[in-house]
Every structure is written in structure tokens, then in C-alpha cells.
């Protein structure tokens, strides 16, 4: 889907579906898994695996909101409470960057390494 959207000139800034695709790619690069729940055509909740599990295990804290708003809207609101301004997202696309050797081997085991392009966004200050 990402490749198709890019070929049609879509980006996170001008396409809502592209924004959702990119979010899942961010989640996939976090090494902790991710989860998505859909209900009907439009109701959706998504988060990194750790945040999703934490939210479900703390259901008693947002149960009342769930009864008022519905499960998925309350879950999304709870996710927003858990987000911090500091994050470090990354995702990797297989393929060529054009300016790097086409073939490399692992210095440790000697096997051919996969070539890819990685994007990162880290707001953490070290």
C-alpha cells in the first residue's frame, strides 16, 4: 500500500490513509510489536504493543469513559494520556539508496547483508 500511495504522489501531509500506513510502519520498527482493533468501517484503535497491553491491563482506570463514549474512543483517549512528547520512531525499507555499496557481508558471520533505507525521528535528548 505504501508503494502504491507514493507512486500516486500521496504523503502523510495530504492523505489520511498514508498517515495510517506510516503509523503502522513506525509501530513495526519499535521492536515491541503493535496491535490494531477495528469496529465497523471507521472506529479504530492502534498502538505499540507495550502501550496497548498497558492500557488493557489498566482498564479499571478508564472503564467509566468506556461506558460513556464506547470502548474504542475511550481506549484512544487513554492512549493519548500515555503518550509522551519524547519519542523515537524508526522504520526501514528494503532497497537501494544509490550511493552505498550494493553488496556487503556481515563482519561477524560473513553472510550477505540486506540493503535497506532507514528513517528515524528521535526527540530524545542525550
From TrEMBL:
Residues 1-123 form the Sieve element occlusion C-terminal domain. It comes from the Eukaryota. InterPro entries: SEO_C, SEOA. Pfam families: SEO_C. One of its GO terms (biological process) is phloem development. This is Sieve element occlusion C-terminal domain-containing protein.
Amino acid at each position: 500500500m505504501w508503494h502504491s500511495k507514493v507512486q500516486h504522489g500521496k504523503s502523510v501531509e495530504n492523505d489520511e490513509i498514508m498517515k495510517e500506513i506510516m503509523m503502522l510502519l513506525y509501530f513495526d520498527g519499535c521492536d515491541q510489536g503493535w496491535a490494531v482493533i477495528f469496529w465497523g468501517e471507521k472506529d479504530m484503535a492502534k498502538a505499540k504493543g507495550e502501550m496497548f497491553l498497558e492500557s488493557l491491563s489498566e482498564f479499571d482506570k478508564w472503564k467509566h469513559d468506556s461506558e460513556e463514549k464506547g470502548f474504542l474512543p475511550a481506549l484512544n483517549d487513554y492512549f493519548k494520556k500515555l503518550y509522551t512528547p519524547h519519542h523515537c520512531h524508526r522504520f526501514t525499507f528494503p532497497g537501494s539508496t544509490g550511493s552505498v555499496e550494493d553488496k556487503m557481508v556481515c563482519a561477524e558471520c560473513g553472510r550477505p547483508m540486506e540493503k535497506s533505507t532507514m528513517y528515524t525521528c528521535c526527540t530524545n535528548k542525550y
